Protein: C1GALT1-specific chaperone 1
Amino acid sequence: MKMNGGFSVFESVVIPEGDNPWNMLRNALHHAHDHEIDNFEWFIVCDDSTFVIVENLKYFALGKDPEVPYFLGRVQREEDLDFVIASAGTLMSRGTLRHFIIALANPKICSNSGTLGDFWLGLRSPAKLLALCLKNMKVYAQNAEDLSGRSLFNDATVQDLVKKTMAEQGQSSSQGNIIEGCCSDLAITFGNVPGNQMHVLMFGVYRLRAFGHTYNDLLEFHHVAPVTDSNDN
Structure:
């Protein structure tokens, strides 16, 4: 993803049939690094059941330096390892992708072979393997949240998040409180979304308009040069 408005989906990476998920993720990131590292600043990895609101993603990344190793999403902890839940999407800066490729070159830091050792195989999840590789490079998974502490990357559908909020707040809670507690206005992803709900989200996010409100759909994102004090010259 470029911050000057560019967005691209990479061509498919050919993976031998029956290969393990860790190899698929590792090879895909290697492909992105080898072919796109100089063309794009941010890289998002997500499942085919993850709905991504690209405009909110670009807004979230706008003020961040892509050379800094950011490893962002919805974080879950297991024992002493923080990892990003894959179904919510994983956002990596260009700096993080470079760190990951360096880690792959050292099998003591990151498993880079098709045959995983007992320790690595015990982790099972590619999301955990990725987090461990980056942790060994001192790049740590971070939660992406709005100013109210609500997750921007979600591993559930809007419907499931609303149901969860209703259960937590009780049936007597007002509709406004439920919506406020459910999801961030700047949500970037919703995960585990069935195909029919993808169409519902597309309509709700990009087509539905409330009469009387003004909308500007033609958003452009640009880097803004920092303001310098004239006294510094």
Q: What stands out?
A: DSSP finds eight helices and eight strands in the chain. The two ends are 35 Å apart (CA to CA).
